[in-house]
Specification:
Layout: H1 2-14, H2 27-46, H3 48-52, H4 61-86, H5 92-100, H6 118-135, H7 144-172, H8 176-195, H9 207-212, H10 220-238, E1 248-250, E2 255-257, H11 263-273, H12 277-290, H13 292-310
Antiparallel strand pairs: 1-2
Helix pairs in contact: 2-4, 4-7, 6-7, 6-8, 6-10
The protein binds Phenylacetyl coenzyme A (FAQ).
InterPro entries: Aromatic_CoA_ox/epox, Ferritin-like, Ferritin-like_SF, PaaA, PaaA_PaaC
Protein name: 1,2-phenylacetyl-CoA epoxidase subunit PaaA
Organism: Rhodococcus chondri
Length: 311
Amino acid sequence: MSEDLQELFDTTIADDQRIEPRDWMPEGYRKTLIRQIAQHAHSEIIGMQPEGNWITRAPSLRRKSILLAKVQDEAGHGLYLYSAAETLGADRADLTAKLISGRQKYSSIFNYPTLTFADVGVIGWLVDGAAICNQVPLCRSSFGPYGRAMIRVCKEESFHQRQGYELLMTMMQGTDAQREMVQESVDRWWWPALMMFGPPDDESPNTEQSMNWRIKRHTNDELRQRFVDMSIPQAEALGVTFPDPNLSWNEERRHYDFGEPDWSEFRAVIEGNGACNVERITNRRAAHENGAWVREAATVFAAREREGSQK
Ligand code: FAQ
């Protein structure tokens, strides 16, 4: 019986069809998806903090309302993703408990501080840009609810990326001090953005199996290269440079060569020792605890509604 189920699963994957929540799936497939989707959901929710830091200090009402809408979108992305994880049998309260006790990861990128308003533009351009590069192939992920969630997420992320680039274009047409602020911000975010794609392929324990299961469609290094290639013309159009002396066009490979990110920094950040890890988790824990009364009230209200509808 279980051999038949395994065969059906393998054929579904080989035929590029989708696995749906009620289908049989290997335990490893379920566990890998819960890990990746939960990490992704946590990233969206924790990712509200760095930009949220600038909502009260945005330089105009227009910039404030754009930023507010973007940060709200990230909350929505987190919620679709937690829902996708729930279709695999995960419990949302348990995932949150794992996040705030440090047992589940979120993206390294959100452990860096946002020091200037230019960071809002650079996060839109480079961080959302890297997120899109990584997430567009996930729209074809073999697990149905994850792939479908990614379609809407990617549409919204594209809009975020454009707003970041537009903000930077505006600043680059301003004063020398504004141009310097943009360049300084790009210098700080470039390497952390490259680390978003995960460790190099030969140090990535999950890639091979996730590619076989068609959860991932490209390796970490392939997507990192794609991101470098697409970002360089955008930087030229903007009038900024990236802080990498090894960046150069390689005619033979028809790709840009680039330097090696500092992987010891990456490891330190995902182990909890980045500049803002403690602050991010402290804020998330406080929000969770302060929201306890809302969850209790909503549960009581839902129970009363159920009782009422049964009368
Ligand atoms: N940070 O074997 P691999 C956003 C972990 S976008 C922290 O290569 P895998 C939008 C990895 O989980 C950001 N941890 O793993 C936004 C694994 O952990 P384990 C979120 C990382 O899964 C924009 C270990 O290292 N996007 O939020 C990172 O095959 C602006 C070994 O790594 C996603 O999550 C990292 N950068 O590949 C929001 C996309 N990289 O097993 C607000 C979905 C790796 O030890 C503002 N995820 N790790 O527990 C993926 O595509 C994959 O999970 C990768 C990693 C590519 C991130």
